[in-house]
Write a structure and sequence with these properties.
The chain is α/β, with parallel strands linked by helices. The chain is about 45% helix and about 10% strand. The chain has helices at about 5-20, 25-30, 40-50, 75-80, 90-95, 100-110, 125-130, 135-145, 170-185, 190-195, 210-215, 230-235; strands at about 35, 55, 85, 115-120, 155, 200, 220. Helix 8 (about 135-145) crosses helix 9 (about 170-185). The two termini are about 30 Å apart. It binds 2-phosphoglycolic acid. 2-phosphoglycolic acid (PGA) binds near residues 202 and 225.
Length: about 240
């Protein structure tokens, strides 16, 4: 729930003006997208027209269509040019009580509409301190692995204690979890475990992006706060 009409325009114009990577470089080295709040998807789609930056959404309904007041169907997001949808962000799990099953259903709807699902997983601080982080993430993965087409997913490891807190997971913590996620996936499909894109999210900024990116199993980032500061976001993009 960040951004307003004028601010969105300012952020995106400034981003487009300062991004020094050419569209070709972006396509080759960097796959970059913006997922605005749903009500601004149309505005952002206009601003991103003819740019290499793709458009995504922050959530979609687990239902296909019908009487679900206030919800937005995946098919509606397609109408506005979305190519990706984030599902299972910890804030959706926490404030809207979304279960693993809801998230699997949402991902299914997104994929059915030809978009990619960015599925978020991650543990709380209590779970990490209790040494349960691997078990928690394994169980979140196991709830989606058998039921959705994982080739149409990007996974985002987002330790809840690192989101919006300024506390980033260390490179070692993030790498070790990404590696663990590939191990869990390998039990279902070895090739998929090597090919799937796994991004890290949680207080990524221009100072920690390079070190995180250098880790073998970290393919990219889900950026929150730093994406509201174009200069920081650009510096993050430039580590790719
Ligand atoms: P942050 O947010 O980068 O501000 O920690 C990440 C997120 O909301 O996924």
């Amino acid at each position: 729930m960040n951004g307003r009409f004028d601010e969105n325009q300012r952020i995106i114009r400034s981003l487009l003006n300062s991004l020094t990577l050419s569209p070709e470089q972006i396509n080759k080295r960097l796959y970059c997208g913006i997922c605005p709040p749903s009500i601004y998807i149309h505005q952002v789609s206009q601003l991103l027209k003819h740019t290499p930056i793709f458009l995504g959404a922050q959530d979609a309904s687990a239902q296909e269509q019908g009487a679900y007041t206030g919800d937005i169907a995946a098919s509606m997001l397609v109408d506005y040019g979305c190519q990706y949808v984030i599902v299972g962000h910890s804030e959706r799990r926490q404030y809207h009580g979304e279960s693993d099953l809801d998230i699997a259903n949402k991902a299914q709807q997104v994929i059915k509409q030809g978009m990619k699902a960015v599925v978020c997983v991650g543990e709380t601080l209590e779970q990490r301190n209790a040494g349960q982080h691997q078990a928690v993430v394994r169980s979140q993965l196991q709830s989606i692995l058998p039921v959705i087409d994982m080739s149409q997913c990007v996974l985002a490891y987002e330790p809840i204690w690192a989101i919006g807190t300024g506390k980033t997971a260390s490179e070692e913590q993030a790498q070790s979890m990404h590696q663990w996620m590939r191990q869990v996936i390998a039990q279902y499909d070895i090739e998929l475990s090597q090919q799937i894109t796994i991004i890290y999210g949680g207080s990524v900024n221009e100072n920690n992006a390079k070190a995180l990116k250098s880790q073998q199993d970290i393919d990219g980032f889900l950026v929150g706060g730093a994406s509201l500061k174009p200069q920081s976001f650009i510096k993050i993009c430039e580590v790719f």
